[in-house]
């Protein structure tokens, strides 16, 4: 019988995600709930680092030191490289929704993905305060616990709920673009705009059909790697918002754009359309949706801002 490739790693990832979720819940009980809200909000929780160490330690113990590579949010924050090679690689966000965690806002996820030859083989997202285990293996469907999940069949943007996040950057120019995008999408109009506070959970909500699309500019590979497999295996689509293609050239408008920057009026005259490109795990931009029609419609409204690629060479300080 053909070997069920990576099944052992997948099953172990589910078990490790559940173990990590229990540690997060316990930390919440011990560190968060026993304090007054104002003191916990200032709490710089070490839970993220502790949980990532538990996950990576368990994986190394099970599969041996040096056999696999690791890209973990906390490890990268400490200077580890964020480069996806052909080697079997774990991509880990130990606590997706850290801000939610310290506030006791009930969406906190453990996100664990596994890639080989730069292809995502499986993804596991454990929403640990909801106790929901979302999981998917390439070519084998997507599940929430033991139930098969599929994306929504809604095609009309006006019947859609779109989910996104504003991230942690508060620089005025980025905040302006983020909220200008959200305003344009809301006023298409769509049925609603939501945000759980964790990309991994947002993508699982796309996969189970609770919302039609999730997008975010500035996101990291560890936030979305597992969710990407789950959305794709649930029948959804993943795109990069890769910039503009000019449908028709208007030289005067080009000159004006070069001088004054792109304005809404100018954008129309330039007939610029933002098009979705192939999903790029490291690009810091992503749209996941139930179908291309919904994805393309919201991509048109997204105002991109620069975000350094996750795999950009580390600048020597
Ligand atoms: O830094 P936290 O509080 O975890 O929040 C980020 C979260 O990890 C991502 O999944 C979200 O999509 C970001 O927008 C949050 O800033
Ligand atoms: Mg995260």
TrEMBL record:
Mg(2+) 1 binds at residues 73, 96, 223. Its cofactor is Mg(2+). One of its GO terms (molecular function) is metal ion binding. It is found in: Cytoplasm. GO terms for cellular component: cytoplasm. InterPro entries: IMPase, Inositol_monoP_metal-BS, Inositol_monoPase_Li-sen, Inositol_monophosphatase-like, Inositol_monophosphatase_CS. This is Inositol-1-monophosphatase. It catalyses: a myo-inositol phosphate + H2O = myo-inositol + phosphate; glycerol 2-phosphate + H2O = glycerol + phosphate; 1D-myo-inositol 3-phosphate + H2O = myo-inositol + phosphate; 1D-myo-inositol 2-phosphate + H2O = myo-inositol + phosphate. The gene is LOC115570187. The lineage of its organism: Eukaryota, Metazoa, Chordata, Craniata, Vertebrata. Pathway: Polyol metabolism; myo-inositol biosynthesis; myo-inositol from D-glucose 6-phosphate: step 2/2. GO terms for biological process: inositol biosynthetic process; phosphatidylinositol phosphate biosynthetic process; signal transduction. It comes from the Eukaryota. Keywords: Cytoplasm, Hydrolase, Lithium, Magnesium, Metal-binding. Belongs to the inositol monophosphatase superfamily.
């Amino acid at each position: 019988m053909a070997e069920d490739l990576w099944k052992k790693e997948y099953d172990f990832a589910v078990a490790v995600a559940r173990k990590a979720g229990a540690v997060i819940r316990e930390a919440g009980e011990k560190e968060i709930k026993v304090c007054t809200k104002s003191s916990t909000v200032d709490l710089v929780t070490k839970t993220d680092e502790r949980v990532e160490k538990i996950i990576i330690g368990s994986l190394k113990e099970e599969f041996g030191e040096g056999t696999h590579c690791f890209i973990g949010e906390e490890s990268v924050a400490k200077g580890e490289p964020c480069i996806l090679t052909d080697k079997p690689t774990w991509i880990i966000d130990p606590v997706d929704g850290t801000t939610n965690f310290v506030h006791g806002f009930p969406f906190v996820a453990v996100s664990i993905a596994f890639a080989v030859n730069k292809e995502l083989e499986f993804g596991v997202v454990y929403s640990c305060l909801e106790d929901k285990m979302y999981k998917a293996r390439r070519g084998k469907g997507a599940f929430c616990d033991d139930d098969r999940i599929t994306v929504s069949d809604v095609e009309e943007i006006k019947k859609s709920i779109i989910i996104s996040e504003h991230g942690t950057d508060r620089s005025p120019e980025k905040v302006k673009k983020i909220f200008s995008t959200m305003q344009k999408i809301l006023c298409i109009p769509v049925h609603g705009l939501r945000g759980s506070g964790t990309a991994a959970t947002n993508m699982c909500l796309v996969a189970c059909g609770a919302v039609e699309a999730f997008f975010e500019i500035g996101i990291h590979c560890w936030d979305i790697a597992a969710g990407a497999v789950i959305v794709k295996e649930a029948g959804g689509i993943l795109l990069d918002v890769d910039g503009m293609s000019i449908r028709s050239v208007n030289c005067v408008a080009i000159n004006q754009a070069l001088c004054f920057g792109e304005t809404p009026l100018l954008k129309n005259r330039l007939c610029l359309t933002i098009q979705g490109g192939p999903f790029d795990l490291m690009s810091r931009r992503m749209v996941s949706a139930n179908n291309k029609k919904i994805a393309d419609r919201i991509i048109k409204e997204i105002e991109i801002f620069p975000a350094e690629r996750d795999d950009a060479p580390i600048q020597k300080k």
